Amino acid sequence: MTEKQNSPAGQEKVGVYICHCGSNIAGTINVDEVSEWIKGNPNVEVSRNYEFMCSSTGQELIENDIKEKGLTRVVVASCSPHMHEKTFREATERGGLNPFLFEMANIREHDSWATNNKEAATAKAKALVNAAVERVVHHKPLEKIPVDIDPKTMVVGGGIAGITAALELAEAGHHVYLVEREGTIGGHMAQIDKTFPTLDCSACILTPKMVDVGQNENITLLSYSEVESVDGYIGNFNITVRKKARCVDEELCTSCGICEEKCPQKVVDNNYGAGLSYRKAIYRAFPQAVPGYPVLDKENCTYFQTGKCKVCEKVCPTNAINYEQEDQLLNFNVGNIILATGYDLFDARKIPQYGYGRLPNVFSSLEFERMVNASGPTGGHILLRDGETEPKTIAIVHCVGSRDQNHNEYCSKVCCMYSLKFAHLVHEHLPEAEVYNYYIDMRTPGKGYEEFYHRLLKEGTHFIRGRVAEITDADRKPGEEGKLIVQSENTLLGVQQRNPVDMVILSAGIEARHDSEKVSKLFKMGCDYDGFFNERHPKLAPVSTMTDGIFIAGACQGPKDIPDTVAQGGAAASQVAKLISQGTVMMEPVRASIREDECSGCRICNNLCPYNAIEYDEEKKVSHVVTALCQGCGTCVAACPSGVIDGAHFTNTQILAELEGILWDMPTEMTVMEEV
Amino acid sequence: MSDQFEPVIVGFLCNWCSYRAADLAGTARIKYAPNLRILRVMCSGRVDPQFVLQALLNGADGVLIAGCHPGECHYVNGNIKTLRRFTLLRKTLEQWGIEPERVQLLWASASEGTVLAAAVDRMTEQIRDLGPLRWSQKVLNGNGAAHPVAEEA
To answer: ipTM beyond 0.90?
Structure first.
């Protein structure tokens, strides 16, 4: 094997440092034995063990040994490289070596913490340290790749998360493209009546922000638009956005609203109005919509369906209606992307025993939210489906679709609080009504949230601990006639209960957007089983993703309430602002390259690359890697039948040397290899 | 570790999901068989089937390849390519008389420390039952020299 020839014994001077990590490593692994043993490796010049290698004293050990003993390679055996690889690379660099002439052996997470067997742990540590030494001998000096950051940013989703992120960046002086699928920004927050626990009017605190977005010169607002394609990488994304035809010329429209007023076609508003109210075929979702231009809904427009009508065109004072308008494809470059695509509400129809969609007086939480809003379909009056009768008893069912193995196992985080808010609103609107909240556990973590729960206890809400089994209109006892009967267990009393009520509200949980998987593929980042986007680190990098330059904010990452969403919007904006003010980022030099003189031009690698980073040169009949696009996965390296693709820092030689080192104690096999 | 056979398993774990799953298993102090020795690759798609053969040739009793769940690959779909290669590799290994339990493919996300630990325990038991492989001695007997993996210049 050539790797043997490449590194004859003693060619490199490797310094090996075994960390005790207090007792985290030294309590299980015999560090003295390992550091003494590795001295037997012909390439090892120095071998030490120290209590905390990541301390400044530990790092100085490395720096001094490089300077004084002339080390050419460094190995630290300690924690995971995800923890301290950067620390020790920097120490190596301060000592005067290229930082990539360093290798880490993970003997804490992968060894001392994973077993109690001291003997086995020490043997495994030897294998891991030896593997690192064998590998590092073949390391080559590498330079990080500088990439310029385009100061423009795209924010996808115009809910409160996207609005916050866009405003933060725009106010810092950076240009933002805000892309929103619907005709207006605002998102779910615009549909909500009051916010918990302060009971602020949701629209009153949201709409000024929406207006700010509309007026900010640094924000290009692309409403009724969707992202078609995303190419490129951090600093240099090329975006194509489809701006759907709204049949209204934005240059001419003054948002006077006459077209909407005169349009003869009424349509049930399933989106903003939760199916309880009507809108017109040319409409704005709500009067404070930003931008204020209406959208013409072709599917329901009389002119588009029958060829006659054109009322809107006739009444428009500025001739802004344009039936021939076509979708526009806009192309622009941005340096970073923030995804704030929000959530879908769980569809309560999926739980048939709760009767939503079948029993008229079972309402979804969004329906109730609209109903109780002063600008909603009933003018803020809580009424049964007949539109007249005020309910005297109301049941609010928590955890609909959440904490349920049949649907979503996770807790949707906001439902307990908004159910409490509903109970409060019922007390406020209908002081005589009795309210029953059916909960599994009351989850009210947050500033002022538990206090709000206590307030509700004092307001006389009845709290019943138990999951509702069924909601039915089949009466069995006197007093149940014409009522909805809520069948549940009361786990505090240990009894089964039937409770006849007039109205039921189902507190549906939060789900990932139905198309989140598609979106995650479009942006080349991951989402979890539930469809929520994956953050880079659950604790320490909650708004970054595994793809550099793409950040996430709000409920697209997981269920969260408005304060958390706003915080994430701001956090994502500050991550982007950081990159913009840095101007350039240094990328890991883990990249593939093709030795063109040896390439046979078979093109097997071309289609394997998920980033289309491999191009085929028709003239030279060879393939080559576009370094700027390559992300360094190494899939092509593994596939090249000629073996002429090198994956920097993960070369065949390095991996095979590591493999040989990790199996140092396996007997006899080498005899065969030497015959090769 | 007295009389009991302790297999040595080489693990090729991807940097983004399964290596982090192993990190998490450690951080959560989940105890599992110390028989897995882990090599980090950026993506399971980097695992050249010849690495697996070389590991077996170098004396490993088993090889675990672990990557992100399908659809969650950091590199879009490298793990799908791994799956394709693995399917072929397994067929090849079978023809050489290597039991399928010895070379396994696992999906473990960065949050699935328990999944990884359980898989290592299970695989260790399976291979312990099979006994040592000693492929180059028992099977190749010095005749079947492996084609060396290509080197870079």
So the answer is: yes
